């Protein structure tokens, strides 16, 4: 019995080696096939984020720069007319509607035009943060063919008395509630109408006082926000917007609060007082 087992031992060793080699070959082939399949699959390209240049042409500069900053753009004023709040945007580069790559804060070049209002305060010709490069976004145009419209067959009897369908009535816009109306204090030729989607001037001035209380220490960002709100309220009041005099009185109190907490606000208070005298004189 022992001799018979010994006789079969070499054959078993050979068979085991064959099976071991075949298994290793199959494993290696499967690994190679998986690697080839993974390499064959194309990687989806990652599209870079884009931004759309807003239309600021004709806007007062105080509102235009706010629109640019809210949309994530930097700005730079060029030309002989400087960045006073009451001046108007004459042109912009790139043009409105241009799609750009989001490089961080693409810089929009702005040219301004003088208005009939006095240029008060300090001009701002450069955005408060550093702008980035303007890079046009690649937008290849693909022509799309419209699907063919099948015209249903019309019987001879139907041709004599065609049925004309009346167009559906367009939905009428809802009436504007009386509370949303803001009659101007006085009319100013060429002044933009008060945007009803923005808070009122008195509400903005009250909010600024509460914001100052929550920011006892000034920084570049907080000072810029404070000056921007001042310019918005003063400019809107001089345009004759609703309750501008009330907003200016609240703004003067906020400027005095800034003087006590930050040590700045004297110039903005003087600008608000001059605007208040002008608004009160024109409201009589």
Write a structural description.
- With 284 residues, the protein is mainly alpha-helical.
- It has helices at 2-40, 61-70, 156-160, 201-213, 220-238, 244-261, 266-283, and strands spanning 50-52, 74-78, 88-93, 99-101, 107-113.
- The strands form two sheets. It has a three-stranded mixed sheet with strand order 2-5-3, covered by helices on one side.
- Helix 4 (201-213) packs antiparallel against helix 5.
- The protein is globular and about 85 Å long.
- It starts with a helix and ends with a helix.
- The model is unreliable at 140-149 and 170-179 (pLDDT under 50).
Describe the SSE topology.
Elements: H1 2-40, E1 50-52, H2 61-70, E2 74-78, E3 88-93, E4 99-101, E5 107-113, H3 156-160, H4 201-213, H5 220-238, H6 244-261, H7 266-283
Parallel strand pairs: 2-5
Antiparallel strand pairs: 1-4, 3-5
Q: Which tags fit this structure?
A:
284 residues, mainly alpha, Trypsin Inhibitor V, Chain A, three-stranded mixed beta sheet, two-stranded antiparallel sheet, 7 helices, 5 strands, 43% helix
Tally of alpha and pi helices:
7
Proportion of β residues? 5-15%
**Helix content class:** 40-55%
- Under CATH at level 1, the class of the domain at 45-138 stands as Alpha Beta
Unreliably modeled segments: 140-149, 170-179
The largest beta-sheet arranges its strands as 2-5-3
- The H/E string reads HEHEEEEHHHHH
| Shape verdict | globular
The main sheet comes to:
3 strands, mixed
Indicate the radius of gyration in whole angstroms: 36 Å
Q: Under CATH, the topology of the domain at 45-138 is which?
A: Trypsin Inhibitor V, Chain A
Structural class: mainly alpha
In total, the number of strands is 5
Determine the N-to-C terminus distance. 129 Å
At CATH level 2, the architecture of the domain at 45-138 is 2-Layer Sandwich
Provide the residue-averaged pLDDT. 79
